[in-house]
Specification:
The chain has 382 residues and is an alpha+beta fold. It is built from ten helices and 17 strands. Among the domains are: 84 residues, Orthogonal Bundle (Helix Hairpins); 97 residues, HSP40/DNAj peptide-binding domain, CATH 2.60.260; 72 residues, HSP40/DNAj peptide-binding domain (Sandwich). The chain has a four-stranded mixed β-sheet with strand order 10-11-15-14.
């Protein structure tokens, strides 16, 4: 036994509970296991040290002797170590056959095992497997997002093979037991390391873990039981959707295996910007530029909304940046009879140039208003 402190090897302190000792060992053994550190003598040596440490500290009698007398006391103790490591760890004494890797090894040592990966994998293959979800993007116009629209798209998805009825075999051809894995769905592999022989299992590449294989592979799906197919799908875009909204179509993803449910199609909407309008939630925003005389004297003007043209009365003396609210002229709300509003902001247009007649009229206005000013002559149009 190493003279190194066994508690330090496991990264714990004296007085640690048995469950914590077990947890610490699993962490350290997983870190230094040869499968995870191939051709690394230092990791193999460390794995042996932590295994020996756990053998001692997991055995109450050996732990008591070690706590009193150190390494020499641990060697005096009798009995078996944890999980069959008794009498000092020797990798050649263990055959890890039937386990799917270090996780299954630990599961068996500490939980007395369960179904092996071979049986589990085959069982999983025989169970219904849902189809994969699909995603795509769709661009729609501003008004289409507001009022809703129906689109027709071309969709390529995976469906069950009609020719072989999702068996993977040509019609009138049998599905038989896989000879390579003898129906287990798993292939056993033996690895020899400095610690000895380790047996692991991997999925059979002939039957893909199913334990059975077609005598004559279906030519349409090449034995995959599914194949890609292009379909035409109608998509109803509801009113009121906004940029970034996602439409989910159930059953329009890939078909599953073993009668598993079909996946869904997720459509990410991209709303094209409008040259006339902007949007804030369900309200539509726009601007209109009016002559200074229009806002000074007032006017009835025609404005454009997504619902069509409307007549808006501009009161005399309307100030720049004034916002008029046109009720129920915005975006219809989803799953509701409510409609947003149209918010119209007034921008005032000041002419950059005026003619002689206009100048004289403006000068009269200056005189009438009693303004003390010296008008310039630049910018006149004659």
């Amino acid at each position: 036994m190493s003279n190194k402190d066994l508690y330090q090897l496991l990264g714990i302190e004296r007085g640690t509970s048995p469950d914590q000792i077990k947890k610490a060992y699993r962490t350290m053994a997983n870190k230094y296991h040869p499968d995870k550190n191939p051709n690394n003598p230092e990791a193999e040596a460390k794995f042996k040290e932590v295994s020996n440490a756990y053998e001692t500290l997991s055995d109450p009698q050996k732990k008591q002797m070690y706590d009193q007398f150190g390494s020499a006391g641990a060697n005096m103790g009798g009995g078996q170590g944890a999980g069959g490591f008794g009498g000092g760890y020797n990798a050649q004494d263990f055959d890890f056959g039937g386990f799917g890797g270090i996780g299954d090894i630990f599961e068996t040592f500490f939980n007395q095992g369960g179904n092996s990966q071979s049986r589990q994998s085959k069982k999983q293959r025989q169970q219904a497997m849902p189809g994969e979800d699909l995603e795509m993007s769709m661009r729609i116009k501003f008004e289409e997002a507001a009022f809703g629209v129906q689109k027709t798209i071309k969709l390529r998805r995976v469906v069950a093979c009609e020719k072989c009825q999702a068996t993977g075999a040509e019609p009138n051809s049998k599905v038989v037991r896989c000879q390579r894995c003898e129906g287990s769905g798993m292939i056993k592999e033996v690895k020899r390391t400095i610690l000895g022989q380790i047996v692991t299992n991997r999925e059979c590449d002939s039957c893909r873990g199913e334990g059975q294989i077609a005598e004559q592979v279906c030519q349409k799906c090449t034995g995959q039981k599914r194949h890609a197919k292009e379909e035409t799908v109608k998509v109803a875009i509801p009113q009121g959707v906004d940029d970034g909204a996602v439409i989910r179509l159930r059953g329009k993803g890939n078909e599953g295996l073993q009668k598993g449910n079909e996946g869904a199609l997720y459509i990410h909407l991209q709303v094209e910007p409008s040259s006339k309008f902007k949007r804030k939630d369900f309200d539509v925003l726009s601007e209109i530029e009016l002559h200074i005389l229009q806002v000074t004297l007032g006017d009835d003007i025609e404005v454009e909304t997504i619902h069509g043209k409307e007549i808006l009365t501009i009161p005399p003396g309307t100030q720049p940046e004034k916002v008029f609210r046109l009720k129920n002229k915005g975006v219809p709300k989803m799953n509701s009879g409510d409609i947003g509003d149209h918010l119209l902001t007034i921008k005032v247009y000041v002419p950059k140039k005026i003619n002689k007649v206009e100048r004289e009229l403006y000068l009269k206005l200056v005189e009438e208003a009693g303004l003390k000013m010296k008008p310039g002559k630049s910018g006149l149009l004659w």
